[in-house]
Every structure is written in C-alpha cells, then in structure tokens.
Design goal:
The complex is a heterodimer of chains A (266) and B (257).
Chain A lengths: L1 E12 L2 E13 L4 E5 L6 H8 L7 E6 L8 H5 L2 E5 L11 H11 L4 H15 L14 H13 L5 E5 L7 H18 L2 E5 L3 H7 L2 E6 L2 E6 L1 H5 L8 H14 L18
Parallel strand pairs in A: 3-7, 3-8, 5-6, 6-7
Antiparallel strand pairs in A: 1-2, 1-4, 8-9
Helix pairs in contact in A: 4-5
Chain B lengths: L1 H11 L2 H28 L8 H18 L8 H7 L2 H6 L4 H31 L8 H27 L1 H4 L3 H14 L11 H9 L7 H8 L4 H29 L6
Classes of the chains: A alpha/beta (266), B mainly alpha (257).
C-alpha cells in the first residue's frame, strides 16, 4: 500500500539546508497497523506530509496506493483519510453534521452510501449527541472523534493519523483506540499513525517504526523494540535508549546535534 | 454552489459584528458625503459628476466595503497558513483557490444584505441618491458588482498566499489596505484625479472593485467596456493566484507540527 524508497526532503532555513528526512525507506502492506515513533523534530510529520501529497519530496521515490502523492493529489485524496491531531478539518462555525455534508460534496459520495456510512460511524464513535452542535463548542475528545469520522466518510482503504490521541483524556483515548482497532480488524483498513503515546503503540500496533534525524532507526514488532535493551526492559526504556543513543552518535548526525528548526518540528 | 451557502451561513453567525459594521459604514458615509458635497459645490461638474452623483458614489462605495472587503482580509487563509492548518486544506480533493472563492462569495452575499443595504438606504433617506436608469442598468450593475467581488477576492487571495513566503502577513495586509483604499476610489473618486495619475489609477485592478461598479450604477461608463475591464482583472488575478498556489505547494514550509 505504501512504498517509500530513499525518500528525502530538505528545507532551506536562512541559507542553511536542513535535512528533515533523508534516505528513508520502508514499505507497508495492505491491512497493516503501523505505529511511527520519533523524538520531536525527527521528521515524522514531514514524512506524513509527503505521504499525503501536501509536500513534494526533494529526493527518492514514493508510492501510496500505487500513486505518486504530490503529482496525483486529487486521485490520492479518494484513497486516503488523513487526521492531524493538532488540526481540524471541521468547519469551526458550523454544526458538525454540516461539516460531514461538505465532506460528502467534496468527495462526491453518493447520498445513500453516505447515510449508511455516517450512521455506522456515528454509532461506533458515539457522535449522535453532538451532531447538531457547532464545532467550536465541542470538547477536544468530541472534536477528535468528529475529525476521524470526517476522514473516513469516503471509505478510504488507507488511514493516516498524526498524533490522534494528543491531549485526550484516558476515556476518550480508549474510545479512539478501540475504534481504530476495530477499523483495522473488521474493515481491513491500512493504518499508519504517529504518536508520542507509547500506550498507542503497545495497544494498537503490530509493527513499530522509529524515525530519528530523518532516518529509520528501528523497524519491527513491539517485542523486538523492547529487546533493543538487554533484560526485561519496558517499551519506555527501549525508546529512551534509542532516542538518546542516536543523539550521541556522531555517525548518524554529522553536522550539529541541534533538533530541526521549529518550522519542521513534529 | 452549496459551499457559497455555507459561506453565507458561517458569516451569518456573526450578525452583531455585521450590524456594527453596517452602522460604522453608514456613519462614515454621512461624514464622507459632506466632504464630497463641499468639494462638488466648490467645483461643480468635477470629473463629470454632479453633487448628487458624488453623494450616490459615496454611499455606494460605503456599501461596497463589506462585500468587497476593501480594507483587506475576509479570508481564513493567512491564519490557516500561519498555524499550519492549511495542510488539511491541501489534502482535500479540491482546488484551494476555487474552494476559497466559493466561501468568499458566500461571505460577500451575506455582507451585501447585512452591510450594503443599510448605508445605501440611509443615504437615500438623508440625502437622496440617484437610482439606476432602468432594469438593464440594474442588471449590469449586479454583474459588475459580482465581478468586483471576484477581483477583490483575486487580490486578497494573492496577499493571503504571500503569507507562505513572509511568515507573517500583517505588514502585507497594511500595505494592501492602503493600496486598495486609495486606488479603488474609496478615499476619493478616481474620476477627479488628473493626468497620468488618474489614468494609472483607473487602469489598475483596484479600480475594478469600487470605481467601475459605481460608474456602471451611475451610468457614467460604457457597460461593455467596464465589464470587460473587470473580467480582464478577475482572470489575471485568478490566474496569478493559481500559479502562486502551485508555487506554494513546491516551496512552502508548512508551519508547526
């Protein structure tokens, strides 16, 4: 579903070239549930932006659902759903259901299909109580569920989420996780998510990728991630170990150990 | 079309702001009317206008401020670029520019009702204003008015998109406001400017927002010429906007996360 081959993206910041992503290669098969970790500024969000066609890569090859994202943006939009935890696609001043209706028009979803799909999403995500509420009056947890529903109304085979559980309370988080797990298991949707919440990784993802300094520092199972540190390590210890070791290593980051500039932080 | 409706409803949420805007536009309309009356009593026939034309021009142009967004702004885009929310707009299967245009037309339609009609009515009651010669002039005026909104959008979209390159849009907005208030004819009718300054001012895109629709209303210009002039600038600015959108996609650093 997703093929990334020697992908690179540089930014020019005040004359110096910053490598937000360099030489990144991985593949995601249909039906996988992949979690993407990495310290702030590691290049996760930049990678997501390239996968979704928002940013064009400066080097390398990229295919999502067989399409080159930055060139086939319109076609790709129908194949992927995108959720940015810190942003919203919903229309601030309008009731939630109006945002859904706009999404329907935008993606040209047939009215009957749309009704069925919306009913399904409403019951799974428990949106019924606040469908008529203007988005600006929703709580973060409600808004996030609304955003997830909006990203899935056109029934995309791939769902990409950038920090979908950020700022959510335990109950809301569990609700979102539960929904994503079912979506992946029952619907076969391929899911790629980035997060700083290791609970998301442990509870949801069969596969973990750790991106640091724009490269892949780890790719494997959660158990494999724990095994990076000898003994009975927790996932926190393993991740801390990987983050710190790459920061110390002069080989992976020859120029300066400072994080990427604010414009490309994850 | 549906999106225009949503734009209308979105802005209709803020009826208090619109009411306050309408009140301000009306009060300033009265003040401007007296200034223009003084000017035209001193120099009758200046620029081909009589006193009543000048007063009509004054209230018409006050009525444009809302829909044409003469003082700039009206778009969410700079804010969305600054915060990075534009990333999501770029994921949608729609042209960013056409999307913004539809929403802006909805905004303009609402503000036409809320902020254009009141000052025009008050002006008519207090001073008496000229009405268009007949249905044909009314129709031409409405077309010219919509074209004016499109030209205004074309310009504001370019200013908004420039946020991609300048990090913060405030300086540009101020510059845009000054250019628009002066060269649109809002400050003083462009017809009174002599020589090359007048010629220049009347051929720039800003004239298509305020001066030209007003002249169509007053019947002071050839309708075909006026509409062609506006169509030209609408096409030129929308074209430039489309190119700038494509360039932004390549270059832009989407800010924050």
């Amino acid at each position: 579903m997703i093929e990334v081959d020697r992908l690179g993206r540089t930014f020019k910041v005040r004359g110096t070239v910053v490598h937000a992503v360099r030489d990144l290669s991985f593949a995601v098969e249909a039906g996988e549930f992949v979690g993407c970790l990495g310290p702030n500024g590691a290049g996760k969000s930049t990678t997501i932006k390239m996968l979704t066609g928002i940013l064009a890569p400066t080097s390398g090859r990229l295919r999502v659902a067989g399409l080159d994202p930055s060139r086939r943006r319109m076609a790709l939009a129908r194949m992927i759903g995108v959720v940015f935890g810190q942003r919203t696609t919903l229309w601030w001043d309008l009731p939630l259901k109006d945002s859904f209706e706009l999404v329907r028009l935008l993606y040209k979803v047939d009215r009957r299909v749309f009704r069925r799909r919306l009913d399904e999403l409403c019951s799974l995500l428990e949106l019924g109580d606040f469908l008529a509420t203007p988005v600006r009056q929703l709580s973060l947890g409600q808004r996030m569920r609304g955003d997830i529903a909006a990203a899935l109304l056109h029934d995309p085979p791939i769902l990409v989420l950038d920090e979908p559980t950020i700022g959510l309370d335990v109950v809301s988080k569990a609700g979102v996780r539960d929904f994503l797990r079912r979506l992946n298991a029952e619907h076969g949707t391929t899911i790629l998510l980035t997060t700083h919440d290791l609970g998301d990784i442990e509870q949801l993802c069969r596969r973990v990728m750790l991106i640091d300094h724009g490269r892949l520092a780890f790719d494997g199972t959660v158990a494999g991630l724990r095994a990076v540190v000898p003994g009975e390590a927790s996932i926190e210890e393993a991740v801390t170990h990987l983050y710190l070791s790459s920061r110390r290593s002069p080989r992976t980051h020859p120029h300066r150990p400072a994080p990427d500039p604010p414009s490309v932080t994850a | 079309m549906r999106l225009i409706g949503y734009g209308f409803r979105r802005h209709a949420t803020y009826w208090a702001a619109a009411a306050a805007g309408a009140f301000t536009n009306t009060v300033f309309g009265v003040l401007r009317a007296y200034v223009l009356i003084a000017l035209w009593q001193a120099r009758p026939g200046l620029g081909g206008y009589e006193v009543v034309d000048a007063v009509t021009f004054c209230f018409l142009t006050q009525a444009y401020i809302g829909p044409m967004q003469v003082f700039g702004g009206g778009l969410d885009l700079p804010q969305r670029i600054r915060t990075g929310d534009v990333a999501l707009d770029l994921v949608r299967p729609a042209s960013l520019q056409l999307w913004c245009l539809s929403e802006d037309l909805g905004r303009a339609a609402y503000l036409f009702v809320a902020r254009s009609v009141p000052p025009a009515l008050v002006g008519a009651l207090l001073f008496g204003i000229v009405l268009p010669a007949g249905p044909a002039t009314w129709a031409a005026f409405m077309v010219s008015f919509v074209l004016g909104v499109v030209v205004s959008f074309g310009w504001r979209y370019l200013v908004a998109l420039a946020t991609c390159w300048v990090i913060d849009d405030r300086g540009l907005s101020v510059l845009s406001t000054i250019l628009t208030t002066f060269f649109s004819g809002l400050m003083l009718p462009l017809v009174i400017f002599p020589g090359w300054l007048g010629t220049l001012a009347r051929s720039l895109p800003w004239a298509a927002m305020v001066q030209v629709p007003a002249d169509v209303y007053l019947g002071k210009t050839s309708v075909a010429g006026a509409l062609a002039f506006q169509t030209f600038w609408a096409a030129a600015l929308l074209g430039a906007g489309a190119l700038a959108t494509a360039a932004a996609r390549r270059k832009v650093v989407i800010q924050g996360g």
